[in-house]
Design brief:
The complex is a heterodimer.
Chain A: H1 2-61, E1 69-74, E2 77-85, E3 91-99, E4 102-114, E5 120-124, E6 131-132, E7 136-137, E8 141-143, E9 147-150, E10 154-155, E11 159-161, E12 165-167, E13 175-176, E14 180-182, H2 193-200, E15 204-207, E16 211-215, E17 220-225, E18 232-235, H3 236-239, E19 244-248, E20 252-258, E21 261-267, E22 277-285, E23 297-302, E24 306-308, E25 318-326, E26 331-333, E27 341-355, E28 360-362, E29 369-379, E30 393-403
Parallel strand pairs in A: 5-8, 5-27, 6-9, 7-10, 8-11, 9-12, 10-13, 11-14, 15-19, 16-20, 19-21, 20-22, 21-23, 22-24, 23-25, 24-26, 25-27, 27-29
Antiparallel strand pairs in A: 1-2, 2-3, 3-4, 4-30, 16-17, 17-18, 28-29
Chain B: H1 3-58, E1 77-81, E2 84-89, E3 98-104, E4 119-125, E5 131-138, E6 140-146, E7 165-173, E8 184-192
Antiparallel strand pairs in B: 1-2, 2-3, 3-4, 4-5, 6-7, 7-8
Classes of the chains: A alpha/beta, B alpha+beta.
Chain lengths: ~400, ~200
């Protein structure tokens, strides 16, 4: 009797222990399953991300590339990618990665790279011009040559150069807070045809004459054609529905308070006497550009120079809200070496110029300006994502959004 | 029934008692191990769920399905701290930007749990007007931020626009444990970056 009971007892205990052990194994394998699931998801995401990067590289090298990828084996999984147009000259790459039955998608939207995204761009940097200790450049910057630095100037945005840095001495230590990259080739366009073309179709184009524009805070503009012309007031939305106003073989004279998004162009010059934009007084937005809700935006696009007019209105500082583009010149002050100290150029926007121009003269012994202007340029961060209409673009595309 | 019978009964009691005590000990260990492994599994599942949500959101900082509504990259992170972050993203690919905040609660929020270290991890959408949920219960939610050069940005973060990448560490423990023997699971992403943060 006791023998049989003992057998039952042993069998009972063994059964209970087996069930318990099985339960423990189940928890262990479930725990591994959880991490395996995470691993598979991560692998699928990584494959999709890699596919997007492959496609981006193809697209950067050849903006006409549309063939995409189909079911390519990669790292234990597969990927596919396609390119489509999404309007406003934008392209979308959709990359899909699959690993062990799990699929993930990455979507990247590109747009033509606008020069407005630069706080400063210089196609040429004169050999004797240095960024020195105390200088601060805000926003992204590019120099299509060598960037000359002396001491510890500060660059808050990402800086790119084509040919690297020229350091004044071994102690020079520039501060690139947004990073630095050399070997980036980003030339200016050869012409400003797009501005003229857009002005003639949906905007306002003038030819072989100078034009004066005074913007009003109510969204209208006063304009006259030729020095002897008569002033006319018209709503901007009527005057140039697409926001592009240009003059060919003439100069623009502008001032006022802008309400809206506008690009002003002075293109197709036949010498340095035209293709210029003159700033006759402050040209500012109706809403503070540092405000998150500022809807106003101005692009100034000149074949030659953007010039601060030598007049009474500009004798005490000048405020400019715009991204300035100069194809063959830069931002300069008229008669800078003979006018008195006129205070500061307060530019909120960006400056894209062929070559830095003089805006003032300073006393080397004191560092104080004796003639012309100091410069105070602050990048308008909105230009990173939005740009004035028809503002010049490069031939390459840039990533606008990345979804994964 | 004689003297030997009494000895048999006493012996049976002793052996039975030993068996009973062994059974109690086995049962005790069984319950403890069962509780530990069960909660460990739940814990790891919870951690992976939290990671999927948090990592997914952080990788989409600054994204918007409608490019017209994009904000400049340096304005996408609104505030950042060692255990909290607020940023904008288009959560539902609707073309409309949402404000997303992650922050940990206090120990008093989970005062009823025996674990003295666990706190809720809140995910607050559009300042709580749309959604305020507990993503999970954590004992550590730690963020370290880096600038474009990979340098650690010291706290407090004065200018969130400098942030380019971040390190995220999450640790979870079970809310209750046998004999206070809390199991834990830990996850760290050493460089988590949203490509929308990069200066183009």
């Amino acid at each position: 009797m006791f023998g049989r009971a003992s057998v039952f007892l042993v069998l009972g205990f063994s059964g209970i222990l087996l069930l318990y052990t099985q339960s423990l194994f189940t928890f262990s394998s479930d725990s591994v399953d959880v991490y395996t699931q995470y691993y598979r998801n991560t692998m699928a995401e990584n494959i999709a991300s890699s596919a997007a990067n492959f496609a981006c590289n193809k697209f950067f090298l050849d903006p006409t590339w549309t063939s995409g990828y189909s079911n390519v084996s990669f790292n234990g999984g597969t990927f596919s990618a396609s390119v489509s147009s999404v309007g406003s000259n934008r392209k979308k790459i959709t990359a899909r990665g699959t690993y062990s039955g799990i699929s993930k998608t990455v979507e990247v939207i590109f747009q033509p790279s606008s020069f407005a995204r630069f706080g400063y761009y210089g196609a040429i940097m004169p050999g004797n011009l240095y960024y020195v200790t105390g200088d601060t450049v805000s926003g992204p910057m590019h120099v299509q040559g060598k960037l000359n630095v002396w001491g510890s100037p500060v660059f808050t945005g990402k800086v790119t150069t084509k040919n690297g840095l020229k350091k004044f001495d071994a102690a020079t230590d520039p501060q690139f807070l947004g990073g630095y990259e050399s070997g980036v080739n980003l030339p200016l366009p050869s012409t400003l045809n797009t501005v003229s073309a857009d002005a003639s179709s949906g905007g306002r184009l003038f030819s072989n004459t100078d034009v004066w524009l005074t913007f009003n805070s109510n969204g209208s503009v006063d304009y006259k054609v030729g020095a002897a012309g008569t002033w006319t007031n018209v709503a901007l939305s009527t005057f140039a529905p697409n926001g592009v106003i240009a003059v060919e073989k003439g100069n623009l004279h502008i001032k006022g308070t802008l309400k809206g998004k506008v690009t002003l162009g002075a293109s197709l010059s036949s010498g340095v006497s035209n293709g210029n934009i003159y700033l006759d007084d402050d040209i500012v937005y109706n809403t503070d550009p540092m405000s998150a809700n500022c809807p106003d935006m101005l692009g100034l696009v000149a074949t030659n120079n953007v010039i601060i007019t030598d007049n009474a209105a500009n004798k005490h500082d000048i405020n400019i809200n715009a991204s300035i583009f100069s194809l063959k010149g830069g931002l300069q002050a008229e008669n800078y070496s003979t006018i008195p100290n006129c205070g500061s150029i307060r530019l909120t926007g960006g400056l894209i110029e062929y070559q830095a121009q003089a805006t003032g003269v300073f006393d080397p012994s004191t560092g104080a300006i004796t003639h012309g202007y100091n410069s105070n340029i602050r990048f308008d961060e909105r230009f990173m994502t939005h740009v004035p209409p028809s503002f010049p673009t490069s031939t390459t595309f840039e990533v606008l959004t990345w979804f994964e | 029934m004689g003297y030997s019978t009494i000895l048999d009964i006493i012996g049976a009691f002793v052996i039975g008692g030993i068996l009973l005590l062994t059974l109690f000990r086995v049962n005790d260990n069984t319950v403890q191990n069962y509780f530990y492994y069960n909660s460990d599994f739940i814990l790891q599942r919870d951690l992976v769920d939290i990671i999927f949500i948090v990592e997914g959101d952080l990788r989409r900082i600054g994204y918007c399905a409608d490019p017209e509504h994009l904000v400049p990259p340096n304005q996408t992170i609104l505030s950042a701290d060692s255990n909290a972050i607020t940023f904008v993203t288009d959560l539902h690919k609707s073309g409309k930007l949402d404000t997303v905040a992650y922050r940990t609660g206090t120990r008093y929020d989970l005062a009823e749990t025996p674990n003295p270290r666990d706190v809720p991890l809140y995910r607050i959408i559009n300042n709580g007007n749309e959604e305020r949920s507990v993503t999970g219960v954590v004992t550590e939610f730690r963020l370290v931020y880096f600038d474009a050069l990979g340098n650690t940005i010291p706290l407090p973060i004065v200018n969130p626009g400098e942030i380019q990448t971040m390190e995220l560490s999450i640790k979870v423990e079970n809310a209750a444990a046998f004999n206070q023997n809390y199991s834990n699971a830990y996850w760290r992403q050493v460089r988590l970056a949203s490509k929308n943060l990069k200066s183009r």
